[in-house]
Amino acid sequence: MVEQSEYAKVVESAFVKSRAMIYQNAPTDFACFCRAVVKDEETREHIALAPHQIEWLDHIDRCKAEGKFAGILAPPGSGKSQLFSIAFPLWSAGGNPRLRCAVVGSDAKLVKRRVRPAKEYVQYDPDFRAIFPNALPEKPEKWTEQEFSIQRPRGIKDPSYLGAGITQPPQGSRIDLLVNDDICDYDNTISEPAMRDKVIDLWYNGFDTRLGPRGFVVHIGGIIHARDLNVRLTNDPRFWFIKQSISNDFQSLIHEDMRTGETKTIDLWSRAWTPEFLEQKKRSNPRAYKRAYQHQGYDDSERTFSETSIKASIRKPPSSIPSGVAYFIGVDLAGKNRAGNVIATIAVGDKRTVVDVERGAWSSDETARRIIAAYDRYHPSVIMVENNAYQQALIDWMGIVSDRPLPIEPFTTGKQKAD
After folding, report:
1. Would you tell me how many other CB atoms lie within 10 Å of the CB of residue 83?
2. Which of 83, 140, 345, 347 has a CA 20 to 30 Å removed from the CA of 31?
3. Residue 134 and residue 137: Cα distance in Å, rounded?
4. What span, in angstroms and rounded, lies between the C-alpha atoms of 34 and 25?
5. With contact defined as beta carbons under 8 Å apart, do 200 and 142 qualify?
């Protein structure tokens, strides 16, 4: 019993010394900062860095040493956002109060979920305060859902931490540390294909141009499409990327250095994934699984209708359309990511053929008249119109323009169309 008590004292002493060493090194060592400050979002206990996360931190150090921006592609649930959208800006600004950090995501709503815990660490966390006692809140009454500052020398107009959606570049601001956090999502990459190039353009012209001469970028995400921003940045010579994918047998992570092509195997992080969980994900939607967990992005060859066939369909001569087909009309009205309304007609027989596509920024009554004209040309079995507030107004307009009964079927889309 005495020996066990003495052993317990030795263990406790070693633990105390270890914690003291971690706190001592935390201001200059990001790994120690994570161990000392960052808490699990559910249990609120100090996190322990997983092996794949240690690889990330080593990669950040190598990139800084070589003057490269850092890129990390990793599966959902791997802890990217907690470490790089919250902890990394806090550690960086704590060590350099002059620093101007920005986190950009697919939309402002997502980024607000990063800003809130970052503010809470600055305001209330005793571990953060112990490591950076001078990183005090600056005028917290003026903080917003998307930005805040710590105390620093006068004359710096931009906030210490700014969160922004990709479509909301910070006009006139300068950035020293930029974190790209899952900028690409299903909506702006797959559902709205025209947004892919726009997202790339917005990043280069709205955020990249805001970087100062010694600015640093950390890009985290996963490939959604073969031509999305993630892929574009892997080909930008300023970046050095690593990629982590779930192995085919669900037992490990495959870590790849995308510059050298070298690979190695890392133990699966059981806190986020188990083989059973991953197998269920793959069975549920094999294509979505390969995209999310193995970075096999979609490409245009997988579209129901290719870009070439769509362009060729404006407007197909009747002689080119097979006989005995059924016609269907789909109507998609302007949204926040795309201006203009689209009326598309397809013929369904042995195969599906796009026969007519119209697009324009028409008024509601003009849109209704064009739909009716398309109905008169093709006599479709169904006219599908999205059923939300604006689309319902269009359906009402069609009833005003024509008193004929039309085969209109409303349908609703939303986040369920994303995986």
Report:
1. 24
2. 140
3. 9
4. 11
5. no
CA atoms within 13 A on the CB side of 83: 26
Neighbours of 74 (CB within 10 A): 23
Compute the average pLDDT of residues 9-26.
Answer: 70
CA of residue 107 relative to chain centroid, distance: 8
Q: By the 8 A CB rule, do 122 and 90 touch?
A: yes
**Closest to 213 (Cα-Cα) out of 242, 176, 240, 187:** 176
With helix as H, strand as E and coil as C, how does 32-81 read?
HHHHHHCECCCCCCECCCCHHHHHHHHHHHHHHHHCCEEEEECCCCCCHH
Answer whether 46's CB lies under 8 Å from 22's CB.
Answer: no
**Token reading at 57:** 């931190």
What backbone torsions phi and psi does residue 393 show, to the nearest 5 degrees? -60, -40
Nearest to 47 by CA among 55, 56, 38: 38
Alpha-carbon distance of 207 to 201, in angstroms, equals 10
Nearest to 250, CA basis, from 294, 190, 195: 294
Q: Do residues 145 and 115 make contact, with C-beta atoms less than 8 angstroms apart? A: yes
Q: Under 8 Å CB-to-CB from 382, ≥6 apart: which residues?
A: 328, 329, 407, 408, 409
Q: What pLDDT shows up at residue 3?
A: 44
pLDDT tens for each residue of 286-310: 999 999 999 999 886 665 555 555 5
Question: Is it the case that residue 323 has pLDDT exceeding 70?
Answer: yes
Mean pLDDT of 31-40: 93
Residue 225's alpha-carbon distances to 192, 296, 318, in angstroms, are 12, 8, 35
319-337 mean pLDDT: 75
